[in-house]
C-alpha cells in the first residue's frame, strides 16, 4: 500500500476499473427490484458548476446505496440542448466572425448550431465523469435525439386531436424594424429621458410615456391598498377619448406602484408585459393597436397608418386641443428595452402562440402530490408545488428560437394568404412581407429554402404532421418551449412506449433536482408522465438547495465569486468535494460553499488511508481471527460495544437516506470512522494481548464502515478495499444488514 493517498492517481484509475467492468450498466433482472434515476441533463454546451456536483453526488449516493442493497439500478445520463442559452452563445461566436443569425436561413442556422454543440459537448461529459458517478453511458440521451423529437411530436399530435391545443395571443418582444422577436436575454436596456404625459382619464389622471397606445387600453389599475382610489376598484369608469369614449374597468393589482405618477395607470395588455400579465390575471380583453409593421392599426380610427412616433405626436396634440392633457414632465428618466441587433425600440406585441389547455392536464398531477403517490422532500417544498399547480394557467408553448424542436404544424400558403414571412432570397437579401404578396415575385421554393421565420394569424389553418405534406406548405418556424420536451425526460430516456427498459425501469424511483425548477420541470414531468402512461414518472422528488459562493451570495460572473469545482477536484479530490457539499447541504436548504469542509474531508481521506495502513501492518505481524457477526465468543465488552455502535450506524444511515437526509447520513459515518474507530477503538486495540481477536473485530468494523462510507466517498473507499480485501470491487459487495 502506498505511503500516501494520492487522489490524482487513484481517482482516474478507479474510475477506469468501474467502467471496464461495466459496473453501472443497467441490467434487466426479473429477480431484482429496479431502482432508477434519470439525470437532469446539464447544458451540452456548458461547463460543470457546483450545483451539478451536488446533484451528481446526491444521485450517486442513492444509486450506490441501492445497488449494494441488491436492487437492479439504472442511472441514465443525458445533456440538454438548452435552447435559447445555446443560441445566444452561438451568436456571440458568429459575431466574432462578423456575422449574425440573420445571415442564415433557418435550416442552415440549425445545422451550424448542431455542429457547434457537437464540438463542445465532450467537455461537460468528461467533467461529469471526473466526479465518479455511476451513470450508464450506454444509455446516454441528448434532448434533440430523434427518439425525443418523435415522442414529442406524437404527444403534440395527440393533444391536438384531443382538443387540448389552441392558438391565442401571447406577448413577445417584437422589433418592428427587424421584423422579428427577441428573447428577454437579447434585449439591451438603455436609460434615457422621455416626456411623461399626464392625461385626464375619467375621474383620474394617469401618467404614461405612451399616449398613442391608449386605444388599446382595456382597464385602469390602482394598488389595492391605495386609500385614494380604493372605492373605485371593481367599478367602471367612462373615459373621454379621441376615437369615441371608452368604458374601462378599474382593477386593483399589486403590480401598480402607488408612487409612480398619480398612482393610477392605464392597462394595455397588448403592448406591455406587465399589463399583459395583469390582463391574464383579471381576464381583460387584449386589444392590439400597433401592427407588425410598427404602424397604428385600424383599432386607432383616424390614426391608422401612422408610425408610433407620428401617432404619439398627433395624439398629444389632439389631447391638448381637447383639454385632456393635464401636464407634461419633460425630464422623466426611465429604462427602455431595445433590440441588441440594431438598438431599435422594442414594441411589446401580442403574437399568435400555441397554447396547451391545462385544466384537465394539471389536475391529476396535483392530486398525486396531495395524496402522496408522489412525495416531495424536503416536505416544506411541497407547498410551492401545490400553490403553483393551483395557479397554473394555460401554457404558451411556442418560442421564437431556432435551436429547439420545431413545431410540426404546416401552413398552406394558398389557404393562409396573410402569413407574414421573412426569408433570404437568392441574392441573400432579407425580405419580409405577406406571403400572398411575395409569392407574386418569388417562387415558393425560394421562399421556403430561404425561410427565417413566419408569423401565422391566430386562426390560420394548419396540418400537424412530422412529414411535409404535398403542396405549398411552410412549416411553423417556432419551436417548443424546452419544458414541453424536457417534460418527457423520464419517458424518452427509457425508450417509451415499448422498449424492455421502459417496461422494467419505468416509473423511475427518485427525481433529484434543484428546487428552483420544481415549477417549470418537475410539474411538467408529472403531467406528461400521467397523461401518456397513466402513472407518475417517479415516486419521490428530492430538491436540493442552491450552492452559494463562499461569502453566501449567489454566484455570478459579475461579482467574480464563481467557484470552479474542477479546481477543488484537482486540489482536494472528487471525494472531498462531494462529501464537503453533501455535509453542507443542510438537508435541502441553500448554503454557502463549504470550503473548510472540503479541506476537512481531504484530511479524512488521508486519515482513512492511514488507518488502513495500520491494520495492514498488524495483519503482517499477527494471525487474524476473522470475526463473524453473531459469534461473540472470546471478544471483550469493548469489542461488543464498537460492534453495537456499528449496528446503530448502519441503522442511522439507512434511516437518514430513506428520508433524503444526506447531510445527517454523512455526519454519522464520518463521526463513526474518525472518532469511534480511529480515536478510540484503534487505541484500545494497541493495548490488547490477544491481537488476533482484536484485529479480527477491527478489520470487520473498518471494512463494514468502508461499505457504509462508499456511496459518499467512492474513490478512497474503493482504493483502500483493494488493498485489504480480495473479493472483487467494493461496489460489488453487499450493503451490511
Ligand atoms: Zn431591431
Top-tier CATH class of the domain at 175-349: Alpha Beta
The assigned structural class equals: alpha/beta
Total strands: the figure is: 28
Strand order of the largest sheet: 6-5-14-16
Number of helical segments? Answer: 22
Q: Report mean pLDDT, rounded to a whole number.
A: 94
Helix content: 40-55%
Radius of gyration: 32 Å
Unreliable parts: none
Biggest sheet character: 4 strands, antiparallel
Bound molecules: zinc ion
* Amino-to-carboxy terminus distance: 29 Å
- Named at the architecture level, the CATH assignment of the domain at 175-349 is Alpha-Beta Complex
EC number: 6.1.1.9
Organism: candidate division WWE3 bacterium
GO cellular component, one term: cytosol
Keywords: Aminoacyl-tRNA synthetase, ATP-binding, Ligase, Nucleotide-binding, Protein biosynthesis
Question: Can you tell me about this structure?
Answer:
This protein is an alpha/beta fold. Among the domains are: 175-349, Alpha-Beta Complex (Isoleucyl-tRNA Synthetase, domain 2); 594-732, Isoleucyl-tRNA Synthetase, Domain 1 (Orthogonal Bundle). Helices cover 41% and strands 19% of the residues. It is built from 22 helices and 28 strands. Strands 6-5-14-16 form a four-stranded antiparallel β-sheet. It has a four-stranded mixed β-sheet with strand order 10-11-9-12, covered by helices on one side. The radius of gyration is 32 Å and the shape is elongated. The protein starts with 6 loop residues before the first helix and ends in a 13-residue tail after the last helix. The model has no long low-confidence stretch (mean pLDDT 94). The structure holds zinc ion. Zinc ion is lined by residues 175, 177-178, 339, 341-342, 344. Keywords: Aminoacyl-tRNA synthetase, ATP-binding, Ligase, Nucleotide-binding, Protein biosynthesis. Residues 639-737 form the Methionyl/Valyl/Leucyl/Isoleucyl-tRNA synthetase anticodon-binding domain. Residues 14-592 form the Aminoacyl-tRNA synthetase class Ia domain.
Amino acid at each position: 500500500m502506498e505511503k500516501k493517498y494520492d487522489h490524482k492517481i487513484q481517482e482516474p484509475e478507479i474510475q477506469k476499473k468501474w467502467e471496464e467492468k461495466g459496473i453501472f450498466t443497467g441490467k434487466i433482472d426479473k429477480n431484482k427490484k429496479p431502482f432508477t434515476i434519470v439525470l437532469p441533463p446539464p447544458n451540452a454546451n456548458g461547463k460543470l458548476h457546483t450545483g451539478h456536483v451536488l446533484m451528481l453526488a446526491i444521485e450517486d449516493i442513492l444509486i450506490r446505496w441501492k445497488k449494494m442493497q441488491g436492487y437492479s439500478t439504472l442511472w441514465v445520463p443525458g445533456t440538454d440542448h438548452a435552447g435559447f442559452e445555446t443560441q445566444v452563445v452561438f451568436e456571440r461566436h458568429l459575431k466574432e466572425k462578423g456575422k449574425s443569425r440573420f445571415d442564415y436561413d433557418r435550416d442552415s442556422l440549425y445545422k451550424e448550431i448542431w455542429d457547434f454543440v457537437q464540438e463542445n459537448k465532450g467537455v461537460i461529459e468528461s467533467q461529469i465523469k471526473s466526479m465518479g458517478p455511476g451513470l450508464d453511458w450506454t444509455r446516454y440521451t441528448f434532448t434533440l435525439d430523434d427518439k425525443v423529437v418523435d415522442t414529442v411530436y406524437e404527444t403534440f399530435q395527440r393533444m391536438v386531436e384531443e382538443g387540448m391545443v389552441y392558438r391565442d395571443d401571447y406577448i413577445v418582444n417584437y422589433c418592428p424594424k427587424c421584423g422579428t422577436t427577441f428573447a428577454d436575454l437579447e434585449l439591451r436596456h438603455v436609460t434615457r429621458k422621455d416626456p411623461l404625459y399626464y392625461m385626464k382619464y375619467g375621474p383620474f389622471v394617469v401618467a404614461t410615456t405612451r399616449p398613442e397606445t391608449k386605444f388599446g387600453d382595456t382597464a385602469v389599475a390602482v394598488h389595492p391598498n391605495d386609500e385614494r382610489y380604493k372605492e373605485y376598484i371593481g367599478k367602471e369608469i367612462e373615459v373621454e377619448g379621441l376615437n369615441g369614449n371608452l368604458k374601462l374597468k378599474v382593477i386593483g393589482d399589486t403590480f401598480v406602484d402607488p408612487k409612480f405618477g398619480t398612482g393610477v395607470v392605464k392597462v394595455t395588455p397588448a403592448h406591455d408585459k406587465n399589463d399583459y400579465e395583469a390582463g391574464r390575471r383579471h381576464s381583460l380583453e387584449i386589444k392590439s393597436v400597433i401592427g407588425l409593421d410598427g404602424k397604428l392599426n385600424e383599432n386607432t380610427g383616424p390614426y391608422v397608418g401612422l408610425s408610433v412616433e407620428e401617432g404619439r405626436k398627433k395624439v398629444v396634440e389632439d389631447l391638448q386641443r381637447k383639454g385632456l392633457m393635464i401636464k407634461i414632465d419633460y425630464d422623466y428618466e426611465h429604462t427602455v428595452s431595445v433590440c441588441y441587433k440594431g438598438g431599435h425600440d422594442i414594441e411589446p406585441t401580442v403574437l399568435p402562440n400555441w397554447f396547451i389547455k391545462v385544466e384537465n392536464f394539471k389536475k391529476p398531477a396535483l392530486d398525486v402530490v396531495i395524496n402522496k403517490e408522489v412525495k416531495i422532500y424536503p416536505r416544506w417544498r411541497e407547498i410551492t408545488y401545490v400553490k403553483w399547480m393551483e395557479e397554473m394557467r394555460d401554457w404558451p408553448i411556442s418560442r421564437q428560437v431556432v435551436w429547439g424542436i420545431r413545431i410540426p404544424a404546416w401552413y398552406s400558403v394558398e389557404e393562409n394568404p396573410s402569413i407574414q414571412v421573412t426569408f433570404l432570397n437568392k441574392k441573400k437579401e432579407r425580405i419580409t412581407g405577406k406571403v400572398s404578396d411575395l409569392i407574386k415575385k418569388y417562387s415558393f421554393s425560394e421562399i421556403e429554402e430561404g425561410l427565417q421565420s413566419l408569423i401565422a394569424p391566430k386562426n390560420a389553418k394548419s396540418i400537424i404532421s412530422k412529414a411535409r405534406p404535398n403542396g405549398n406548405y411552410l412549416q411553423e418556424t417556432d419551436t417548443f418551449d424546452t419544458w414541453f420536451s424536457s417534460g418527457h425526460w423520464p419517458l424518452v430516456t427509457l425508450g417509451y412506449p415499448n422498449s424492455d427498459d421502459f417496461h422494467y425501469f419505468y416509473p423511475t424511483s427518485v427525481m433529484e433536482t434543484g428546487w428552483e425548477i420544481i415549477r417549470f420541470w418537475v410539474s411538467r414531468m408529472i403531467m406528461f408522465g400521467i397523461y401518456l402512461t397513466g402513472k407518475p414518472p417517479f415516486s419521490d422528488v428530492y430538491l436540493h438547495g442552491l450552492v452559494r459562493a463562499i461569502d453566501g451570495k449567489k454566484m455570478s460572473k459579475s461579482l467574480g465569486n464563481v467557484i470552479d469545482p474542477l479546481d477543488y477536484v484537482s486540489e482536494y479530490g472528487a471525494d472531498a468535494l462531494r462529501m464537503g457539499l453533501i455535509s453542507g447541504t443542510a438537508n435541502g436548504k441553500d448554503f454557502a460553499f463549504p470550503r473548510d469542509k472540503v479541506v476537512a474531508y481531504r484530511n479524512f481521506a488521508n486519515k482513512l488511508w492511514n488507518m488502513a495502513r495500520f491494520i495492514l501492518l498488524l495483519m503482517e505481524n499477527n494471525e487474524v481471527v476473522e470475526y463473524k457477526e453473531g459469534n461473540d465468543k472470546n471478544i471483550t465488552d469493548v469489542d461488543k460495544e464498537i460492534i453495537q455502535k456499528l449496528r446503530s450506524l448502519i441503522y442511522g444511515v439507512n434511516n437518514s437516506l430513506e428520508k433524503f437526509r444526506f447531510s445527517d447520513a454523512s455526519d454519522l459515518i464520518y463521526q463513526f470512522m474518525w472518532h469511534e474507530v480511529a480515536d478510540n477503538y484503534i487505541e484500545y486495540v494497541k493495548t490488547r494481548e490477544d491481537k488476533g481477536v482484536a484485529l479480527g473485530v477491527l478489520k470487520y468494523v473498518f471494512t463494514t464502515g468502508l461499505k457504509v462510507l462508499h456511496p459518499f466517498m467512492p474513490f478512497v473507499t474503493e482504493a483502500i478495499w483493494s488493498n485489504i480485501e480480495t473479493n472483487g470491487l467494493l461496489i460489488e459487495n453487499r450493503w451490511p444488514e
